[in-house]
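[scheduler] slot 2 assigned
[scheduler] job type: sequence-to-structure, two independent chains
[scheduler] chain ordering preserved from manifest
[runner] begin chain α
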Amino acid sequence: MRKKIFSILLIIIFIPCLLKAEEGIAVRIAVLPFEVFSIEERTDLGSEIAVKLSKQLAINPYILISDFRAVQSVLREDEYATLGEERLKEIAKLLDANFLLFGSTTKIRDEISIDVQVFNNFPAEAYFKTFAEGTDIEGVIEEIS
């Protein structure tokens, strides 16, 4: 039941992106490093999730993914959790991205939860949000994408 609700939410949330991508119009998406909440001392999890999510989305030939090094070059070290709408617009412009994906991940023992927000750089659109959780990071990322 939870997967069914998640799937419905995912479809509703990504409809603008999916419609453009399926109409043969390529869209550019930049995936920002995720903020990490974990008791583990692992510093690369947020970047790992962003890279894996980027690769999963890149399977669609109409979704162009911004290079992760370019994404990192426009972000300040301390700003993952403090991204306001104006800064998101600026990042999207610098990366020439139609959409920005960002969010947070929580890892407790073997359980992982990923919360994703989609910033739509098109006028009058704003934010969308979704999440996925499970024990397998690959499966959670596949579910999000």
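[runner] end chain α
[runner] begin chain β
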Amino acid sequence: MDAETRKQTVRKFFEVLDAGEADAALAFTTGNPDFLIFNNPFPGGTRGFCGLSKSVLSEGPHREYTAQFVDGETVLSQVTVRGTTMKGEVYENYYLIICTFKGDKIDHIQEYNDSAYAHAKFGLG
């Protein structure tokens, strides 16, 4: 799989993941890989993360990929995620998402963002 195909696979994966389509999202993966937020596994792995945005955003998420880099089996994506919270507030956060491939499937996902901002917007902290 070439670098451009890896980038597009990551974009398609997140498109269906955000839509809450777990089985379609998992078709891009090696199974149900861990989905790490910083270094903490999200409960239920990728399947557990699926559709999370629909539970905290009334509109969105809209992902703007501002940069993507490929180094061998790893795709680094710089992403701005926008939407509207359930409280009607604008949400705009900046993410670094690392996806590691095994063959043509995503095998590991790790995400970094401004967690203090996200917690404040979603009432988690």
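[runner] end chain β
[qc] chain β: The first helix runs from residue 3 to 18.
[scheduler] slot 2 released
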